[in-house]
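Running this now, will post back.
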Amino acid sequence: MSIKVENLSYIYMKGTPFEKPALKDINIEIGDGEFVAIIGHTGSGKSTLVQHFNGLLKPTAGKVIVNGIDTSGKNLRDLRRQVGIVFQYPEHQLFEETVYKDIAFGLKQLGLEENEIDRRVRKAMGIVGLDESILDKSPFELSGGQKRRVAIAGILVMEPKILVLDEPAAGLDPGGRKDIYGFIEALYKNSNITIILVSHNMEEVTRLVKRVIVMNAGKVEMDGSVKDVFRYTDKLEKIGLSAPQITYLMQKLAKVYPDIDGNVYTVRDAKMEILKHIRKCKGDSNG
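Update: finished.
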């Protein structure tokens, strides 16, 4: 088991006039090798929740156990090697003279040999889809999407067992978003890593993940497969969320053509469902 959250509650600025409950009695488990999305409107508690996964925040009540490590402990070095968190706009943390030095920074703090550092840096570059020709460039000469991938490579180079991505494509143009989600998909397919994606992009959530956890007002509102969660579009809308646009289209088509399945969440599946309907209509007309 990767992550076990038991009766977790968290209060910001507890004991002050400004205290604010952020999480309320959360109970979830995330297994090894899962690809999970955590969604919710702004202020729902999703970012606060994932910050407990590597001990950046400590529970006000309850506990979080990650690969057998209690995140309330004092020595969290091993935990933070296992859990990498990529926050929004991670490129703002770039600071070294070259791309190579920036990616290698965390490894140098571990005292690894230069050949091992070099191997890991080049491996991380390949994972995020960057050409090694930019290794000697300043990270500040790169495009926004490239900077984002360099920053993520600086997390992957530590070879975490769990990767948390908090809005990884925020602020990027369509090409940059496509690149980011493309390497995330490839990373999951080609490794045994556990990935937790925090996102507002419902199209990418439904295309990439197997399981969705819905947060609302500091609580887990829903937890299930993509199909189990997004079939309840009315419930999602009441808490400030929505299904992918293709789902609304398919639900409207299903009202006109009852043989069409309206519970479709990706463009690929919608295409297959519509083609199936067309073939059926042709078969009926030929008959």
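The chain has eleven helices and ten strands. More later if anyone needs it.
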